[in-house]
Design a protein that fits this description.
This protein has about 70 residues and is an alpha+beta fold. It is built from 1 helix and 4 strands. It has one domain. It is globular and about 30 Å long. It starts with a strand and ends in an 11-residue tail after the last strand. The relative contact order is 0.29.
């Protein structure tokens, strides 16, 4: 399982991105990371982020979570 985080800063298009901390080179600054815990895949991590932060647009990082990147 991998550890995932959510960027507390939104992209210019409004999405908060989920990142895999084990593989991503584009992680946000530590102060902007919200820990989502360990998950078997990005789908589970994105679901957790959406459950916790209803009303926010959540998307996977295009680089480390391409299966969850929707925009």
């Amino acid at each position: 399982m991998a550890r995932y985080i959510l960027n507390s800063n939104a992209q210019s298009t409004g999405e908060h991105e989920v990142h895999n901390t084990n593989t991503c080179y584009w992680l946000p600054e530590p102060r902007n990371r919200i820990d989502l815990g360990e998950h078997p895949n990005c789908q589970s991590a994105v679901s957790e982020a959406r459950r916790r932060y209803q009303g926010r647009k959540i998307d996977g990082c295009a680089h480390c979570c391409p299966d969850c990147h929707t925009r």
